[in-house]
Structure formats: C-alpha cells, structure tokens
Protein: Imidazolonepropionase
Organism: Leisingera aquaemixtae
Amino acid sequence: MTGNYVLTDARLATMASSDTPYGLIEDGAVAVSDGRIVWAGPREKLSADNFPWEQRSLGGRLVTPGLIDCHTHIVFGGNRAMEFEMRLNGASYEEVARAGGGIVSTVSATRTASLEDLVQGALPRLEALIAEGAAVVEVKSGYGLDLDTELNMLRAARRLGNLRPVTVKTTFLGAHATPGEYKGRDDDYIDQVCIPALRAAHAEGLVDAVDGFCENIAFSPAQIERVFKAAQELGLPVKLHAEQLSHQGGTALAADYGALSVDHVEYATEDDAKAMAASGSVAVILPGAFYTIRETQAPPIDHFREHGVPMALATDCNPGSSPLTSLLLTMNMGCTLFRMTPEEALAGVTRNAARALGLADRGQIAAGMRADLAVWDVETPAELAYRIGFNPLYTRIHEGTQ
Ligand code: DI6
Ligand code: FE
C-alpha cells in the first residue's frame, strides 16, 4: 500500500500530546498522502469529501507510531559468544582479555571486515528490529578506531538504510575506546585519529550526530569536550554515553553542549537531571546493557520524571554489553527493571526516541508527521510492554509504504 489512502477501524495510540493516556483514540482513522500523515483523529470526524481515497479497515487493531531504536551499534565484525561462554565457565576478566576477548576483539574483527561483510553482518540485526515494527534505527561507528574503518562502518550504516525500508540515522562514535596502537596515549588518539576521522566522515556526508563514551575505562570529560568542540565547528549535534559505570560528570558537559541525549545514565544525580531538563536533553535508558553486565544501580527515573526530562528506551545493540535486537523486550525491561510505566515505555521508543535523534516529524501519529506506523494484534498498548518474547506485529508502514 502506497500513495494516498485512509486507514480506518483502528485504535490509535497516537503518542501525541493529549489528555488521554497514550493519546488514545478508540475508533480512529489516519489519512496518508505521499508518505505523510495528513489527518488523524476519530473516524466519525473523518470527511470522505476531503480524503476521497481508498479506505482500508484495520479490523480494530492497535496502531502506534513506527518504533524508533535511537541507540544501536548494529554494525560490527565477529561476535563475542566465545567470551560469554568463557566467563560462564569461570574465566576471569583477565583471562578473557588474554584470549583476545573484549572490545579489542570486535575492533580487530571490524577492521578486517569488508564494507560488504559489515553490511551482511548487520542485516539480520536490522531485520530483527524491523520485524518488531522499527521504522527508524540509529547506528553508531566506534569499532573501527582508525580513519578508514570508522568511515567504512558509517558507509555500511548508510547502505543498510538503502537496502531495507527503514530510516537509518548515523552517529560518529570515534571516542568509544582507545585502540591498542594508542594504548596509554588517549589524548593523541583523540587529536590524531578521532577528530580527523570525524572531519573526513562529515565531509563524506556520513554523520548525523557525534557521540562519545565518557567513563573511567574510556574518555574523560575534558577529552570528550575536544570532540564536542570539533562537532560544534561542523554544526553537528552531540550526544553522550555517560554515567554508565561511575559518575564522571559527562552529563553536565553534554547538557552544556545542548546534547540531543545523554545515554545509560545509571549513575546520574538529581543535579544531572536538572541540567538535562534545562538543556532539553533526552535520557536514553538502556536496560539491555544493565541486564547483561548485571549492573545493580538503576538510573534515577524518579528524578527524570520529577524534573521533566524526556525518557527514551533503546536496545544499545552491541556485541559486548547488549546483544539485544528486540525493542519490545527493551520496553518490558524498562518497566520490570526500572519501574517505568508501559506508557513511558511506548513514549520511549516513539516520541522521545525521535527527539533523541533530533527528528521533529517522527514518533507521533499526527498531521504533518511522516507516515511511519506499526499495526499490532493487541487490544491495549500496555500489552506491548507486558509480554516477554512474543511479537504481535501485524504490519508496518514506513513513510507511507507498507
Ligand atoms: N558502553 C557499553 O556498554 C559498550 N560501549 C559503550 O559505550 C560496550 C561495548 C563493547 O563491549 O563492545
Ligand atoms: Fe552504546
């Protein structure tokens, strides 16, 4: 289905601002024209005169905005199942590292992969996300850590968006880790590799946003700030992995730079929440990583609520700390592990995820938005977050095309 049409007999969880939870419209209709929503509301108010187009009944099914995974690392070489197994057989962190495990193993597998290998490796992960209703997926670099491979990762991400009916947003994450050849010389890596690679990637039109990993095992706020300054010079928005394992002050820095989002944030404080509220940054909650590394410090959801910080939820799909390709399971984890409400969980993979990517015309069912829709075989929106390991997607529409 494409072109101009009207969807009827639909229960709409519009996620648009409204007095009703989920912006719910019980017996709704959506008019779509050339990939955009031109009208959405109660069916009784739909005038056939205005939209004399083909009508399609959805049989009372639930319709949500197409889902958005606003934080992924789906492009990488190899996998880390071997170290997962080693650890569960009692190997220590050092033994895993000595066997070539950890992030360095992904970096070497990514460096030896061709562009085509990277695309083919990522496709099943992307397809798993799409199969659960994703219409927009963000993809980060950060496993190349040299100029050529960082660019190759981003080219692979762009190609994924051409191969499948999904919108891919790319994020440069050169400041993810220091590669072996720069061991002990983090500052040199930032100045000699990361920032030049960012400029080269931007010159090739490969960068929608710039990210970093601010952590005691990664980069300091001062090092991240140099990357943010380079992003600012290029006119690119920033976001940051911050306060995941400890409190380093990355959130305050990101807020100072008007970050689109601050991600992980388990160790963020109330002051961090206030700074994020003031800068309009989204808190991107990543329960897959929390679960996988068996973290015990939950993000300060109450502070985010209290200070009006919008919360998104994302898979953080990566081979080490979150080999997760299900947004529905991510929603369930956000509710069960962090006590987010099912409505917050759905907002987290729609409206607020769009905002975390700086996308003003996605994540809601309303006139003017892109026609990204997910149609579900469920009665209530809470069922999406409630069930575990079940996919009730009936169909998905991306930019007006089914
Ligand atoms: N935070 C994480 O948990 C991952 N990266 C990041 O910035 C870890 C990535 C990996 O182990 O491959
Ligand atoms: Fe991440």
User: Anything to note?
Assistant: The chain has a mean pLDDT of 97. The domain at 67-357 is CATH 3.20.20.140 (TIM Barrel). The pocket of fe (iii) ion (ligand 2) is lined by residues 71, 73, 241, 316, 318 (CB under 6 Å).
